[in-house]
Design brief:
single chain; 459 residues; 0% strand; coiled coil
Length: 459
């Protein structure tokens, strides 16, 4: 009975230890599976995020480059400073190319960092898996050794109990020895069966561990292979994008050369037009100066003739007015004398007043008529003098206005000629500077293209 109780206690302890060990093993395996799944999801998300970031950055850069090129093309159509616009376009393209290279370099560094982190995590998981496997094997060995020690102790104790029982109860319990032996053999067989079962369970566990390890190795290899394929695809896409940018850059360079040629041709045409305009302007200026001098000479002649005519009219009118005044004075004196004489005669002759009054009234009417005629003549000559002075003043003002107008017109023509010559010189200077700058930039672009080709070949 004590033997059965000890065996049951040992079996119970062994089952408890095996259950705890199996639970611990299952928990560790579940933890490993969850960590592997999380790692797989993290790696997938990281690769997707990196790929999306690359696509987003490439798309944004393409959209930005296209929009900038469209804006620059619109500016090129409406701008008069073509050289400055082309230089700005080159600077924008160079800036975008540097930003694209910086973004690509940052994404490569992040991808390399993620790959290193992934390798470190996988290495840590591998080490942890190996440590857990070693611990499991060590615990299984310890358990097996402890189990064998317990079995040996039980066997030794069983033999001691059997010997003592056989020695003390040999006479009374010979019939029970066979039963005990049979029971002992049954127990031993049971223990052997249980040991076989434990061995099979251990082998099954080891086989499952090997299969899990192989499965993990396969999954890791597949994941590494997929990551390698994704990296290769990303490298191909990046190479295609770089090739597209190089082709676009060559297209822009060709377009720029064509634009520069067109601008040179336009500048040459403008220079010829400016030369023609300058010659035409000089011819027009000369003709206008000749016409201006002729008109001024004609106006001066007319002015001098009018002044001479006015002077003559003034002298003649002054003489006539003086003569008329003298005649009027003489006539007035004569009339006064006549009036005095008539007054004397009127006082002296009072006999025939009617006849005297008639004669005096006739004389007074005659004198009034003569006075009106003289006043009208004087007013006529004064009006002629006033009209002549007004005409002379208008003629003088017209001559001054014509002189100022022709002077201003000549100054405007001279200013236009100076501005045209200044613009022509400025354009020639800008064209020479642009040619030298284009030559230097072409040399720099050729060197940069060669360095990019060398870099792409090395990659």
């Amino acid at each position: 009975m004590e033997h059965d109780a000890a065996v049951k206690v040992l079996e119970t302890e062994r089952d408890v230890q095996l259950a705890a060990l199996q639970a611990k093993h299952d928990a560790m395996m579940n933890t490993l599976r969850m960590e592997l799944e999380n790692l797989r999801q993290t790696a997938s998300q990281s690769s997707q995020v990196a790929h999306k970031a690359v696509l987003e950055v490439t798309h944004n850069e393409d959209v930005t480059v296209t929009r900038d090129i469209n804006v620059v093309n619109e500016d090129l159509k409406h701008s008069e400073n073509e050289a400055i616009v082309i230089r700005n376009l080159r600077e924008e393209i160079e800036k975008l190319r540097k930003e694209h290279e910086a973004t690509t370099r940052i994404l490569r560094e992040e991808n390399e960092k993620l790959r290193k982190d992934h390798e470190i995590i996988i290495r840590g998981l591998r080490e942890e898996n190996d440590n857990m496997r070693i611990k499991h094997e060590t615990s299984m060995k310890n358990l097996w050794t402890e189990h064998e020690t317990v079995i040996e102790g039980v066997r030794a104790e069983n033999e001691t109990v059997q010997r003592s029982a056989m020695q003390s109860l040999r006479a009374d319990h010979e019939s029970m020895i066979a039963a005990l032996q049979t029971e002992h053999e049954t127990l031993v067989q049971k223990l052997r069966n249980e040991n076989d079962g434990l061995r099979k369970r251990q082998e099954t566990t080891m086989q499952s561990m090997r299969e899990l390890k192989d499965h993990m190795r396969t999954e890791h290899q597949n994941e590494i292979r997929s990551m390698r394929v994704k990296n290769e695809n990303m490298a191909k896409e990046h190479k295609i994008a770089i090739q597209g940018l190089i082709e676009e850059k060559e297209h822009l360079h060709t377009k720029h050369e064509a634009t520069v040629q067109d601008l040179c041709k336009k500048n040459e045409d403008l220079r010829k037009q400016n030369e023609d305009l300058r010659l035409e302007l000089e011819t027009t200026t000369k003709s206008l100066r000749a016409e201006h001098e002729t008109a001024i000479k004609v106006l001066r002649d007319e002015y001098e003739a009018a002044a001479e005519r006015a002077r003559r009219l003034t002298e003649h009118d002054a003489a006539v007015i003086e003569e008329l005044r003298e005649q009027h004075r003489t006539e007035v004196e004569r009339l006064q004398r006549q009036l005095a004489e008539e007054e004397q005669q009127r006082t002296a002759i009072a006999v025939c007043p009617q006849t005297t009054n008639d004669v005096n009234s006739d004389k007074i009417d005659t004198l009034k008529k003569q006075n009106k005629i003289l006043s009208a003549t004087v007013y006529h000559y004064k009006q002629i003098i006033t009209d002549t002075e007004q005409m002379l003043s208008r003629l003088h003002g017209h001559v001054e206005r014509e002189e100022s107008k022709w002077s201003a017109h000549a100054e405007d023509l001279q200013k236009q000629l100076d501005e045209a010559l200044s613009q022509l010189n400025t354009r020639n200077l800008q064209r020479s500077r642009q040619k030298s700058q284009n030559n230097s930039e072409n040399e720099e672009e050729n060197s940069e293209d060669e360095s990019e080709v060398v870099t792409a070949t090395v990659k």
